[in-house]
Fold this protein.
Amino acid sequence: MKVLLVGCGRMGGAMARGWNGAHDVMVFDPMASELPAGAVRVDALEDVEGDADLAVVLAVKPQVFPEIGATLRPLAGSGALFVSIMAGITLNGLEAALGSARTVRTMPNTPAAIGRGITAAVAGRDARMGDIATVNGLLAPTGAVVWLDTEAQIDAVTAVSGSGPAYYFRFTEALAKAGAAAGLPPELAMQLARATFTGSAALAEADPAELAELRRQVTSPGGTTAAGLAQMDQDDAIDRLAGRIVDAAAARSRELAG
């Protein structure tokens, strides 16, 4: 299949590397000094010949999209499928800019850049039955893909998985800071906190048990872990904090989408 990648940053580049050998990949990104192996540079979007077998993957910053939307209209008119990984650009926004509703809006997260992410997708009103399989194949190099029933769920997805990596990173920073305050050298505290974070994530992936069960396996009654968890659970503190975090991020997502 023919794929036009518009924007070849970290996320777009990771996708293009995964497509090498599987698709005919063209890349439009004037700022990219080098392209992934197998990709062909396109100097002008007007030079691309579009048809119904072309998939255009939009991987630019959302603020850049208004500048190139009109240039992409001829490709949309030819029947091309458009797949957006841009945050904050709705299906209606894509249709208004492109003049086509054969679109799919997605929300990846940053681990997708190393093939370990999860992406939520929702189809535009003129997406075809085969487009679901096409998008699954295009996003496969980034990790798991889930499909949403409605676009309204995108804001919650953004708040949970889109922004989620930053929450885990921030907690790990806080854990390391607390370790330093408890008497550890800061570098050692960060090493311990970071290795615990990545190791726990690997364990959660490898072990099919529920997270609550994995937590119980670490927690001896009356022990040190139980004492620490009691601070999280007192007055449902951790659940209320997570609720505020997700509510704030989802609200901001709605604001950005207009």
Q: What stands out?
A: The domain at 2-154 is CATH 3.40.50.720 (Rossmann fold). The radius of gyration is 21 Å. The chain has two domains: 2-154, 164-256.
